[in-house]
């Protein structure tokens, strides 16, 4: 199946899932995750109309942005775990950071601001009991969100999470929806819910996801390295 056919098939499945959930497919943003794929694939995706692309690693994000600077309208989403010492580069190269999971990282991204630019960010929530997983705890997510609201170079957009592998994604995303609702009490315009990947985006849509992170179902198998 060609790249165009895979993209079309996923978009049809997203639209069908949205309609079954009583939602407008137009309110859902499909982010194509291009981790480990070459910049040439992003160029092909852009030619097919893709404008939202996700990357997990700062080095790869920076390299691809540098190579694809001639493409208009690409919106780069950083969705991986972020180290504070990479905050400046992430801030420079990403339009949205989905993985703000602690106050220290929010502060590092804020300090890396240049001029009056404002960076869109989401608070990543850990939906497991494993503190080693990325994301703030359910109990701490609101505090991180409140801290972000005090940093004028960051714009809180909402929340993000990855469903645990050993749990029904519907129940996990229901917890995320609860956190999202509480965050919206702090910031009514923080309406984004970044949730859902290839295997669980239908459940994410049912739980109110606004941004889906779809990788190999569109891009094909990932190569071992860029």
Question: What key attributes describe this structure?
Answer:
TIM Barrel, 226 residues, 9 helices, alpha/beta
With strands numbered from the N-terminus, the spatial order across the biggest sheet is 7-6-5-4-3-2-1-8
- Domain count, please report it: 1
CATH class wording: Alpha Beta
> Major sheet, described briefly?
8 strands, parallel
The helicity comes to 25-40%
Count of discrete alpha- or pi-helical segments spanning 4 or more residues: 9
What is the overall silhouette?
globular
Architecture in CATH?
Answer: Alpha-Beta Barrel
Percent of residues in β-strands: 15-25%
Q: Which structural class matches the secondary elements?
A: alpha/beta
Mean pLDDT: 96
- Sketch the topology as an H/E string, one letter per element: HEHEHEHEHEHEHEHEH
Q: Which superfamily, in CATH terms, is the homologous superfamily?
A: Alanine racemase
Number of strands: 8
Query: First CA to last CA: what distance?
Result: 22 Å
The third-level CATH topology is: TIM Barrel
- The radius of gyration over CA amounts to 17 Å
Poorly predicted segments: none
